[in-house]
Q: What sequence folds into this?
C-alpha cells in the first residue's frame, strides 16, 4: 500500500495548523506498536489517525482500535487504507474537547493510548488522560525529542518542571527509542522520541490530586520563591530542586494547614 499515492489520489492537502507529519516505514510502525506492547486482548486508543498507517499496524495486534481524528478531509483516505480492517472504529472528534463520559460511551473498559502526536498537542493530550478518570493503563506517545527529555528530567536540572512532576507522580515513564526527522513526511524540523508511560494513579497515594497539581504549579510559577515548612526542607530550597516525593509531602502539609 503506497500511502503517498493514496493521498495524491484523494487530493489530500496537509494542514500545517494541525501539525500533520505521517510515517510510512512499516518497520518503524511495528516498532512503535511493539514498544507499546499491544496484544490480542488489548483495546488501543489512537490519537490522530492521520493516513491510518499506525492504525493498520495496531489493528493487526490489538483486539480493537478506536482512533480519533479531527481532520475530516482524511475520511476518503481512511475509507481506503482501513477498508480491510474490521476491528477499527474511526471517530472524527477532538478528544481534548470530549468529556470522559463521551469517551467511555465509545471505548469500554481499560485501554492503551498509542499515538504519533502533532507536537503542539503533546502536553494537552498527556495531561488530558493522566488527569482523567478514564481507565487508561498505558500511553506510548511519539513526540518532539526535547519534550520527551523534559518529561523524564531529574529534579535540579534545567529541563525539570511542573509537567515533569505531574508525569512522574502518576506514571512510570521511559524513552524507548529516538526517531529521526527523516522518517516523517512532510519532514519536520526536529527529531522525535517515543515515550512510554505505565499509568499508576496510586504510585504516591496522593489524597487530593487537584490540590497537589496546584501546589506544584505554584512552586514552579514563582521559581524565585523559596519553600520552607515542617517538611524539614532546606530553608532556601526552590521548587525545581524538589523530588516528586517531596512535592507530595509539601502539598499534604499545606493542605493540612489550610484545613485548620
A:
Amino acid at each position: 500500500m503506497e500511502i503517498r499515492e493514496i493521498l495524491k489520489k484523494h487530493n489530500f492537502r496537509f494542514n500545517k495548523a494541525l501539525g500533520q507529519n505521517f510515517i510510512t516505514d512499516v518497520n518503524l510502525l511495528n516498532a512503535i506498536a511493539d514498544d507499546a506492547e499491544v496484544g490480542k486482548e488489548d483495546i488501543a486508543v489512537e490519537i490522530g489517525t492521520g493516513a491510518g498507517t499506525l492504525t493498520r499496524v495496531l489493528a493487526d495486534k490489538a483486539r480493537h482500535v478506536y482512533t480519533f481524528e479531527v481532520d475530516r478531509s482524511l475520511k476518503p483516505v481512511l475509507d481506503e487504507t482501513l477498508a480491510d480492517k474490521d476491528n477499527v472504529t474511526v471517530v472524527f472528534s477532538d478528544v481534548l474537547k470530549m468529556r470522559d463520559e463521551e469517551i467511555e460511551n465509545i471505548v469500554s473498559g481499560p485501554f492503551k493510548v498509542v499515538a504519533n502526536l502533532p507536537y503542539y498537542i503533546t502536553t494537552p493530550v498527556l495531561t488530558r488522560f493522566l488527569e482523567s478518570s478514564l481507565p487508561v493503563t498505558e500511553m506510548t506517545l511519539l513526540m518532539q525529542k526535547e519534550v520527551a527529555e523534559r518529561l523524564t528530567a531529574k529534579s535540579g536540572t534545567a529541563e525539570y518542571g511542573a509537567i515533569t512532576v505531574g508525569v512522574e507522580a502518576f506514571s512510570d515513564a521511559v524513552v524507548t527509542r529516538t526517531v529521526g526527522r527523516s522518517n516523517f513526511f512532510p519532514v519536520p524540523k526536529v527529531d522525535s522520541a517515543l515515550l512510554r508511560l505505565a499509568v499508576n494513579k496510586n504510585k504516591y497515594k496522593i489524597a487530593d490530586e487537584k490540590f497537589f497539581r496546584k501546589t506544584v504549579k505554584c512552586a514552579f510559577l514563582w521559581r524565585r520563591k523559596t519553600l520552607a515548612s515542617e517538611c524539614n526542607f532546606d530553608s532556601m530550597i526552590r521548587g525545581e530542586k524538589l523530588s516528586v516525593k517531596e512535592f507530595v509531602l509539601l502539598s499534604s502539609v499545606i493542605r493540612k494547614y489550610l484545613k485548620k
Summary: The mean pLDDT is 91.
